[in-house]
Structure formats: structure tokens, C-alpha cells
Amino acid sequence: MKLLPDELQYIQNGLKKQNRSDARLDGKTCVVTGATSGVGYQSARRLAQAGARVVMLCRNAEKASLVQDELSREYQAESDVFIADMRELAQVSRAAKQIAGKYPKINVLVNNAGVFNRRRRLTPDGHEEIFGVIHLAAFVLTAGLIPNLKAAAPARIIDVNSEEHRFGGLKMNDLNWSKRLYIPLQAYGAAKIAQLLTGLELAGRLRGSGVSVYIMHPGAVRTNIGMNNDFLYRFYNHYILGLFLKDPAVSGEAVHYLAAAPELQGVTGNFYNQTIEEKPASYVLSERLRREIWDYSETVARSYLGDAYDI
Ligand SMILES: NC(=O)c1ccc[n+]([C@@H]2O[C@H](COP(=O)([O-])OP(=O)(O)OC[C@H]3O[C@@H](n4cnc5c(N)ncnc54)[C@H](OP(=O)(O)O)[C@@H]3O)[C@@H](O)[C@H]2O)c1
Predict the structure, then answer these.
(1) Confidence label for 242 from pLDDT (cuts 50, 70 and 90)
(2) For residues 98 and 232, which has the higher predicted lDDT (pLDDT)?
(3) Which position among 10, 41, 75, 188 bears the catalytic label?
(4) Annotation says 188 is catalytic
(5) Which of 22, 293, 299, 310 gets the most CB atoms within 10 Å of its CB?
(6) Residues in Cβ contact with 219 at an 8 Å cutoff, skipping those fewer than 6 apart
(7) Ligand 1 pocket at CB < 6 A
(8) Number of H helices, E strands in the chain
(9) Plot region of 274 (φ>0 → left; ψ -120 to 50 → alpha; else → beta)
(10) What pTM value is reported for the model?
């Protein structure tokens, strides 16, 4: 029963019983970014449990190696690690080419890595950091892996987005927050809107190719996000906000559902609150913004990937 208007439906959806799947992924290759913590780590575990080979794109080789050991010990899963600091698009582009070269067929790509900064930071490339890591890096990686996803069709791309896209904040004339006051939740919202709009556009462009796009909110879960900030924020995050957050295993379960559920085969271009299809916020999405952010992202990705850009 629908108790709330569309724009608030996400509150109700967050409380609903989520879908699950027992579908196996034996023999499938799943690429997961940010698999060393939180949602990405739980996703890697759940995909490995389902029999997948998990290819992790991470920045910390030591942490990644511990996850590899765990996947092998607990699930006898095959895994691989590629290293890139996703604040640097040249590193992402290099990793995309390495992954594409080693794995001609990629069945699932999970764009998960993310960051939340209370203070404005720029990447070495000069992009606002949240936007750079969450949106641009994922766009570059995805663009570089499209031929491999097509070669594995039916294949799936899962973008770990957020209900916080509802905060708005994406302005094409100020992607770097240099002309306005930096509002952390809106900077985060801006990156998520960019990811959402380009994900919707990508789904349209890939229609008929056998590659589907699923854009999801992983649940409000207890992870390390935000723990790179000041002491006060870390305290609030851990001891106050943390009381209301769920175990991130639910996010791993949701990512696995979107990656594997047979009933989703061929479905594309939808937003999910974990596993429940939901309308994203219409007030932050416009056709014009969608065109503009796509064109901008494509130009950036082409400049790093060169001929390897293939959408
Ligand atoms: N937690 C929630 O309630 C929630 C809600 C909505 C959406 N999300 C989304 O879920 C995704 C995962 O976040 P999380 O909550 O699981 O946070 P997390 O525990 O902090 O995990 C973030 C992951 O991204 C990696 N990462 C961060 N910056 C990176 C960089 N520059 N280069 C390469 N990897 C980098 C981290 O690597 P290290 O381990 O090396 O730090 C880590 O593996 C994000 O996109 C976030 O926006 C989370």
C-alpha cells in the first residue's frame, strides 16, 4: 500500500522487506570498486559466495590482499586486485585498460567506491573530490570496460548511488564548488546526481546490447564513509548516526540481487532502494542537465582513455 507521495516513497521503501536471490554466479567475472570496506567489501563477499570471480579495484594493496585471503579461505573464490587511487583519472584509465586486457569478458561491474568530505577538497586532477571519485572515476572505468561487458552479454552494471541525490547540488557552471559555499551534503548529492543521470543515459545508449544498468541506494548502513573527516564528525558518525544504521551485509545482499536475479534479466535504467524499484527525485533530474553532464563526462573520459573510450 502506498502511504506517501512519490517523492517520499523512499522512506517507506527503506522499511520494506527486501528481495533476495539464491542465483549463482559460477564462472562469472565481477569487477567491484572499493572492495576493501563497507558496501564494496560486503558486495565482494556476497558475489564470491555465489561463486563469482571477484576483480577488485582498490587503492590500498594491503587491505585488498586481506580481502582476497578471506574470499579464498571462506568461499574458495578466485579473485584479483588492480590498484588505482580513484582521485587520479590517469590511474583509473590505466587500471581500466589493464582489467580490460586481462578479462575479455566481464559479467558484472559494481561502481561502488566513494567518499564524503566535510570540507571542500580537490583531486590532483583539479576536480572536487567527491565528484571526482564517485562520478568521474566510475564513468572513466565504465567507459573503458564497455566492450568487455558487451562481450559477456547479458551483463550488468550496478551503480551504487544514494538517496542523497535528493539533496540536489549539481551545477554545470560550478562543478568544483569554487563559486558558491561548499555544502557537504549537496556536494555529495551533486556527485550522486551526476552518476544517476549518466547511468540513466548509459542504460538508453546500451539498449539492445545485452548490457543492463541498475542504479541503487545500498541502504543506510554502518561503514567507514565520512571517517576521513574531523574528530567531531567521526564521533557523530560512529556514536550517534551509527545507532540508526544497518549492518552493511544488507547492501552486499542487495548488490548480489541486482547482479544475479534472473527476474531482472533485460530490465535496465531503473533506480532501486536496495532492491525495490523506486522513482528517483524528479526535481533534481532534467533532460538538459542529463545531456550536459553526459557531454562533460564523455569529454573527460575520452581525454584519459583515448581510443579505449567505447560507449
Ligand atoms: N554507508 C551508507 O549508508 C551509504 C548510503 C548511500 C550510499 N553509499 C555509497 O556506498 C558506496 C560505498 O561507501 P561505503 O559507505 O561502503 O564507505 P566506505 O566504507 O568508506 O568504503 C568506501 C570504499 O571506497 C574506497 N575509496 C575511497 N576513496 C577512494 C579512492 N580515492 N580510490 C580508490 N578507492 C577509494 C575505499 O577504500 P579504502 O578502504 O582504501 O578507504 C573503500 O573501499 C559509496 O559510493 C557511498 O556513496 C553508502
Answers:
(1) confident
(2) 98
(3) 188
(4) yes
(5) 293
(6) 14, 246, 248, 250, 251, 254, 274
(7) 34, 36-40, 58-60, 63, 85-87, 112-115, 133-134, 160, 162, 217-218, 220-221, 223-225
(8) 10, 8
(9) left
(10) 0.97
